[in-house]
From TrEMBL:
Transmembrane regions: none
Gene: asnB_1
PROSITE patterns documented for this protein: GATASE_TYPE_2
PANTHER family: ASPARAGINE SYNTHETASE, ASPARAGINE SYNTHETASE (GLUTAMINE-HYDROLYZING)
Protein known as: asparagine synthase (glutamine-hydrolyzing)
Pathway: Amino-acid biosynthesis; L-asparagine biosynthesis; L-asparagine from L-aspartate (L-Gln route): step 1/1
Organism: Pseudomonas fluorescens
Family: Belongs to the asparagine synthetase family.
């Protein structure tokens, strides 16, 4: 779109939820010129012309990525939303500056000039995604959330600057530190209700994802409380009972009176989706819950064009059990000398995960539910950590060391977190998740998966004002009696009985370990042949084959390690490298 004075040209992806308020501000200040329509894009252009990019960004509420060309200053400005809901790639290829919301567009234009970045590949193998600002290609970057830059000459690399950050530790806390429990829940409810209200405005049919967990149930509750008709809700279930939360979602939907639809996912559905994953996700991406995300998006799109989700609740409001477990474990073991911990780790690894499963089978039922071979083996990998940051990075990694898995890299490029001494361990882990895991894993999964079905998703919990509030609360206000997301849980109790949602977190995972030994085995074996691995030259063939054989024998569960490798192999195959 071109501005009315023809000075600015913009390309824009996303939604500005407060564009009507911004339009009124521009009109009241006398800065608006001629309005040609009622779109948020036109308001965004007018705001940039009146206020400049920095002030405009500070006033936006929404999810977005845009590029704007200024004909007068001969500069182009790229910007991305605060939480990283919408993607934006950029780089210099030869003597040309390129940018796109899809990496495949850059690949289509400059494919022969692009080379795979092995250091980025190492981080992908570790995490299952490539963390910003890197991409899988050398010289192509992701613009990080809440950043923008302007360039007039493309001879040197752009230098993005931040226009927003989460409140620093202690910031904005004084006024909330003395608040009663009820006051905390009230203020969270007010801010989240406002976010839901703004995101329910749509000129197309609208619904919501409902998993039956706290976050999605709360969003649906707030939506239904603000709607005069039954809202549409959508759930995906699994034929394997241990992975299936659909019955819980159905019960909550019935209680709230929503118009509810279920879809059950089987192995055949996964097999049908897998060949398309490299096309849906621009670069290698290995969060296996991408499969149910795509399928529930396709089902939802048959009924509505916009769906609200509960994404962000765990990271913002300390919902993951790992926050408390990791902080507690580190507090206990940091006093032990590192050599002693390394000996303990070696001892725990003397048995395979299957062997530990056999040992755990004789434990009392209450303990057996909490301890298994995989968890014990996982703990052994973390005991040798030198600090909390290294331990948490290890917990969030599949391959603990990638320099001996990915060929042609060194240990210093493994992407391990580095924190200064933390006063609040839980807060540091949340900050890491919000800055990396949330935008580069969870939001990529949802945005690309939904957009592949032409479904727009919106996440009220990711309204930056909700995020600011969450980080203005202390860990003690977020976690009570060992349970996280306390304000969200208390707020949900106002709409849904506790018995409907008070249960262990199940996540949105698939039975990957079983499927790799069953219906996905042939597909995986073809991608992991010794001849292929050696010919392509990206991975240590012996290590990959060993992990594959260990998994097939049942000695170890290597499903998550292997899924990272398989997703790269599949992407490599589709992209003709």
């Amino acid at each position: 779109m071109i501005s009315d004075d023809e000075r600015f040209v913009i390309v824009f992806n996303g939604e500005i939820y407060n564009f009507n308020e911004l339009r009124e501000k521009l009109i009241e200040s006398g800065l608006a010129r001629v309005w040609r329509g009622h779109s948020d894009t036109e308001v965004l252009l007018a705001a940039i012309g009146a206020w400049g990019v920095q002030k405009t960004l500070e006033n936006l509420v929404g999810m977005f990525a845009f590029a704007v060309w200024d004909k007068v200053s001969k500069t182009i400005t790229l910007a991305r939303d605060r939480m990283g809901e919408k993607p934006l790639y950029y780089g210099i290829v030869g003597d040309r500056f390129v940018f796109s919301s899809e990496l495949k567009a850059i690949k289509a234009a400059f494919g022969s000039d692009l080379r795979i970045d092995r250091h980025a590949l190492a981080k992908f193998v570790r995490y299952g995604y490539v963390p910003a600002p890197e991409s899988i290609y050398e010289g192509i970057k992701k613009l990080q959330p809440a950043h923008y830059f302007s360039v007039g000459s493309f001879s040197s690399a752009p230098e993005p600057v931040s226009y927003w950050t989460l409140p620093a530790a202690g910031e904005l806390r004084d006024e909330l530190s003395q608040a009663s429990d009820k006051e905390v829940v009230d203020v969270v409810g007010e801010r989240l209700s406002a976010a839901v209200k703004s995101q329910m405005i749509a000129d197309v049919p609208l619904g919501a994802f409902l998993s039956g967990g706290v976050d999605s149930s709360l969003i649906v509750s707030l939506m239904q409380s603000q709607s005069s008709t039954s809202i549409n809700t959508y759930t995906i279930g699994f034929n394997e009972p241990e992975f299936d939360e659909a019955p819980y979602a159905k019960a909550i939907a019935k209680h709230l009176g929503t118009n509810h639809t279920e879809f059950y996912l089987g192995a055949d559905d996964a097999v049908s989706i897998i060949p398309h994953l490299p096309e849906i996700y621009d670069e290698p991406f290995a969060d296996s819950s991408q499969i149910p995300t795509i399928l529930v998006s396709r089902m939802t799109k048959q009924h509505v064009s916009v769906a609200l989700s509960g994404d962000g609740g765990d990271e913002l409001f300390a919902g993951y059990p790992r926050y408390q477990i990791t902080a507690g474990l580190w507090a206990r073991i940091e006093k032990l000398p590192l050599p002693a911990r390394q000996i303990m780790a070696y001892s725990l690894r003397s048995l395979s995960s299957k062997g530990w499963d056999n040992v755990c089978s004789i434990l009392p039922g209450s303990l057996r539910a909490k301890v298994n071979g995989r968890r014990i083996y996982r703990m052994s990998e973390l005991l040798g950590s030198e600090n909390l940051a290294q331990m948490y990075t290890g917990l969030m990694s599949q391959w603990q060391s990638t320099d001996n898995v990915v060929l042609g890299i060194d240990a210093q490029h493994q992407g391990v977190a580095s924190w200064e001494s933390a006063v609040d361990y839980v807060e540091e882990m949340r900050r890491w998740d919000v800055s990396q895991y949330l935008p580069d894993d969870l939001l990529v999964k949802v945005d690309r998966g939904a957009m592949s079905a032409s479904l727009e998703t919106r996440a009220p919990l990711l309204d930056h004002r909700v995020a600011e509030l969450a980080f203005s609360l202390s860990s003690d206000q977020l976690i009570k009696n060992g349970v996280g997301k306390w304000p969200l849980r208390e707020l949900l109790k106002r709409y849904v009985p506790t018995s409907f949602f008070d249960r262990p977190k199940a996540g949105f995972s698939i039975p990957l370990a079983q499927w790799l030994r069953g219906p996905l085995k042939e597909w995986a074996e073809e991608l992991l042949t010794e001849e292929r691995l050696k010919r392509e030259g990206y991975f240590d063939c012996q290590k990959i084959r060993s992990a594959w054989l260990q998994h097939q024998s049942g000695t170890y569960d290597r499903s998550l390690h292997l899924w990272n490798i398989l997703m790269f192999q599949s992407w490599l195959d589709k992209n003709n490298h």
